[in-house]
Amino acid sequence: MSVRREIPEYDGIYFITITCSQWLHLFELSSGYEEVYKWFDHLKSKGHFIVGYVIMPNHIHALIAFRNTQGVSINSMVGEGKRFMSYGLVRRLKEKNEHEVLVKLSSLVNATDRKRGKRHEVFEPSFDWKECRSNRFINQKLDYIHANPCRGAWNLVREETEYVHSSAKYYETGEGIYVITNHTELEDIDLTKAL
Fold first, then answer.
1. What pLDDT does 162 receive?
2. In the chain, which end has fewer C-beta atoms inside a 10 angstrom radius, N or C?
3. Is residue 2's pLDDT more than 50?
4. Any alpha helices (H) in 96-189, and if so which ranges?
5. Are the C-beta atoms of residues 90 and 102 closer than 8 Å to each other?
6. What pairs with residue 19 in β-bridges?
7. Pairing state of beta strands 128-132 and 12-19?
């Protein structure tokens, strides 16, 4: 589990990883990939940019360009996204009668959170992040994200562009199931200025 660290800035491009509790395959089990796209849409509606992503069965990697958040921490925005994705995933798990999984997620809630009304621990409490300050680093992270479904124990597809829940195809062909902003388009956008 990662150590919680606050993102000190209020704008910039960040590589963010959100992991399902105990690496459970919650996106796959719930068919809940759409919940991530809803969060991305919310971020876009606030003026932020989705630069790249992959939604794996049990975690998300995303490159997000945050426009000046006017004093709202990026950690808070990611936390809000995790909360709303959690509601959606739990709803979908209930619809699919995934009772054992829901019991497991309920058992993971600590006593303090349970007193506050939390019922399920869908994601690991913290998330990992790295600030991306150069095109070289952004490209490195995009390569990592896009190769994720093809590597290691996953081997979900042979070619990066075959994995539906990834921006790989969008970078390769300009098409995909979710529209992203190519990081080169951000060169003329001042992220320090709010909308």
1. 96
2. C
3. no
4. 99-107, 111-115, 135-147, 168-173
5. yes
6. 59
7. antiparallel
For the chain, which residues make up each domain, given as ranges?
Answer: 12-188
- What is the dotted CATH code of the domain comprising 12-188? 3.30.70.1290
Residue 106 phi/psi, 5° resolution? -70, -40
Query: Sorting pLDDT into bands at 50, 70 and 90, what band is 4?
Result: low
Q: What is the arrangement of strands in the sheet containing 59-66, beginning at the earlier edge strand?
A: 49-55, 59-66, 12-19, 128-132
Q: What is the pLDDT of residues 141-184, one digit of tens each?
A: 999 999 999 988 899 999 999 999 999 999 999 999 999 999 99
Q: Which segments within the chain are labelled E, that is strand?
A: 12-19, 49-55, 59-66, 128-132
CA 120 from centroid of its chain's CA atoms: 18
| SS3 of the chain: helix, strand, coil, percent, to 5 | 45, 15, 40
Whole-angstrom distance, CA of residue 101 vs CA of residue 35: 18
Distance in Å from the first CA to the final CA of the chain? 35
Pairing of strands 128-132, 49-55: unpaired
Q: Copy the structure tokens of residue 17.
A: 């990883």
Give the tens place of pLDDT for each residue, 5-59: 788 888 999 999 999 999 999 999 999 999 999 999 999 999 999 999 999 999 9
Q: Name 12's bridge partners.
A: 66
